[in-house]
Amino acid sequence: MKIDRARAQKAFADYAAHYNAADAKVKLKIDHTYRVAALCARIAQSLALPPEDVDLAWLSGILHDVGRFEQLRRYNTFIDAQSVSHAALSVAVLFDEGRIRDYLDDAGADALLRTAVEWHSAFRLPEALDDRTRLFCQILRDADKIDILRVNVETPMEEIYNVSTAALRRSPVTPAVLDAFYAHHCVLHSLKQYPADNAVGHASLVFELCYPESLRIVDEQGWLWRLLDFKTDNPDTAAAFAAIRHAKVPRGSSLTALLRFLWFFPSYRFFLLLCNILYLYYR
Ligand SMILES: [Fe+2]
Q1: Which segments of the chain are extended strands (E)?
Q2: Which residues hold their Cβ within 5 A of ligand 1, which is an ion?
Q3: Distance in Å, CA 36 to ligand 1 centroid
Q4: b/e burial code for range 59-80 (CB count within 10 A of at least 16 → b)
């Protein structure tokens, strides 16, 4: 399948132009979309996928948050729990309204793209996915998680979560959110009670990245560490973030050490090769 990137990018730009780009929240989602698409392509390339699949991964990034614009227009929030599932809205815009045909004529990848968009922000992927669909879902989810770290540093949390600076600075952290972080998995949205929970929740995203290239990018970009440098007047929250910055992860290494360790692997394939060699040597 041949994807015309220029056409797809123009289709996205034309769609987004219906919304007010002077609104910081609209601009944020436009910029996020382009970065996620580029990250999808980079991760796909690191997996040595053929060029047409690199383009398909890129396209999934362009499409994934199309529903954010309608979510913002209708509800003036990006919080799904207070409005609507933005992933479901993306699916509705693209596949129920048929706008997907603005991006490409070939319908051969519609089912895969629909699934990737639909599940991009879900807590877990469904079990019953074929290998190829799972691969594209995971690439998109990794790319989205990586850029969410950046968005949460670059954009004031007050703006993203509609919260005052005072509330943010006195915010505690919910114990169940800290438990999820120390269990090394993503934090369920339903567990979050306070504004500071969002920073812990987003830091926990790195535990569920699937590909070594994704960890390399997180280390390279440095947004994770800036996110964890959380400004607070609440002594308990300050202590919680200090502990997280020095959190131990499996294998007894710190988060930094794990990221640096994986950075040295030039590709996922090399990583698998090394595992195979070690297995053959020690079995
Ligand atoms: Fe999203």
Answers
A1: 248-249, 253-254
A2: 65, 121
A3: 10
A4: bbbbbbbbbbbbbbeeeebbeb
Tokens at residue 205, please?
A: 């995203």
- In the numeric block, the tokens 């040597």 are attached to 281
Distance 238 CA to ligand 1 centre (A): 29
The Å distance, Cα 68 to ligand 1 centre, comes to 7
Distance 138 CA to ligand 1 centre (A): 13
What angle in degrees, to the nearest 10, is found between the helix axes of 131-154 and 110-118?
40
Can you read off the two tokens belonging to residue 58? Answer: 């890129």
At 264 the three-state DSSP class reads coil
Cα of 253 from ligand 1 centre, angstroms: 31
What is the CB neighbour count within 10 angstroms for residue 167?
14
Q: What share of the chain is helix, strand, coil (3-state, %, to 5)?
A: 70, 0, 30
- Expressed in angstroms and rounded, the spacing between residue 148 Cα and the centre of ligand 1 is 9
**68-111 confidence digits (pLDDT tens):** 999 999 999 888 988 999 999 999 999 999 999 999 999 999 99
Question: How far is the centre of ligand 1, averaged over its atoms, from the C-alpha of 16 (Å)?
Answer: 15
The 10s digit of each residue's pLDDT in 111-145 is: 999 999 999 999 899 999 999 999 999 999 999 99
Rounded distance between C-alpha atoms, residue 152 and residue 197, angstroms? 12
Q: Which two tokens stand for residue 147?
A: 């850029």
| Cα–ligand 1 centroid distance for 80 (angstroms) | 10
Ligand 1 centroid, distance to 43 Cα (angstroms) = 18
Contact at 8 Å (CB) between 217 and 195? no
Ligand 1 centroid distance, CA of 121 (Å): 6
Tally the residues of the chain. Answer: 283
CB atoms within 10 A of CB 175: 11
